[in-house]
Design goal:
Elements (H helix, E strand, L loop, with lengths): L2 E8 L8 E6 L12 H4 L1 H4 L7 H10 L6 E5 L9 H10 L3 E6 L4 H9 L5 E5 L7 H5 L5 H12 L4 E8 L5 H11 L1 E10 L19 H11 L3 E6 L1
Parallel strand pairs: 2-3, 3-4, 4-5, 5-6, 6-7, 7-8
Antiparallel strand pairs: 1-2
Helix pairs in contact: 5-7, 8-9
The structure holds iron/sulfur cluster.
Length: about 230
């Protein structure tokens, strides 16, 4: 696994748990609003300091009994074929594992769930289906994204969906998303876009961003479709 960063303790990345977050490099998307170019673009990844798996697992050994979980984020963790073995090793040390994913690899998601290698999933919903290509910066395979949504909604594992309120997204987009992913077992979080951070494609900054009050209004409208729907 290519580890590009480690946050040694977080109280917010894993709901209700004290955790560490590991940043895995490489991503198959190029979301224009992404803040993590150093974990996404090969030309930047090569200049990043790496953390070896040995250093990472030694750290987890030291923190046994102090930390409850490990958050795997990126980049996109599911592009690595070795992810199941990596999760297994973490689980064998007694940690809970949370996966942050863009949902583009339903086969891997299913494998991890069926083999009890993860305990919580946070999946990004980038946009309504018809705007996915633009907001993933890629020819996103929407069938795969839909499949991942279906897998999670089966409820075999605790999960949430989340959307960054990227420039250009409108209230009507959130209605469409809610009609797609909504369900009584679904937790859905919206995250405000931070226009101060550098992004992958600065062109997106030319598009209007919903104000906080507009986001809250959209949440009020779509809330009945979810178990929980909040702004983070
Ligand atoms: S925001 Fe998009 S490009 Fe950035 S890491 Fe996540 S999926 Fe990849």
């Amino acid at each position: 696994m290519l580890i590009g960063g480690l946050q040694k303790v977080t109280l917010i990345d894993y709901p209700g748990k004290v955790a560490a977050t590991v940043f895995l490099t490489g991503c198959n998307f190029r979301c224009p609003f992404c803040y993590s170019s150093e974990l996404v673009l090969p030309e930047k990844i090569k200049d990043q300091p790496r953390i070896s798996e040995k250093v990472f697992f030694d750290f987890l050994k030291e923190r046994q009994g102090l930390l409850e979980g490990v958050v795997l984020c990126g980049g996109e963790p599911t592009i690595s074929e070795n992810l199941p073995q990596f999760c297994k090793k973490i689980k064998e040390m007694g940690y809970l594992v949370k996966l942050d994913t863009n949902g583009s690899n339903p086969e891997m998601l299913k494998e991890l769930i069926n083999n009890n290698l993860i305990d919580y999933v946070a999946m990004d919903i980038k946009a309504p289906k018809d705007k996915y290509d633009f907001y993933s910066g890629n020819k996103a395979d929407i069938k795969k994204i839909k499949k991942s949504v279906e897998i999670l909604k089966q409820g075999k594992i605790d999960f949430e969906f989340r959307t960054t309120v990227a420039p250009g997204l409108k209230e009507s987009d959130f209605l469409e998303i809610a009609n797609w992913i909504g369900g009584e077992n679904v937790k859905y979080f919206l995250q405000e876009f931070n226009s101060q951070k550098p992004v992958l494609n600065p062109e997106i900054l030319k598009l209007p961003v919903l104000e906080r009050e507009e986001i809250e209004k959209a949440i009020e409208t779509i809330k009945p479709k979810f178990q929980t729907c909040k702004l983070r």
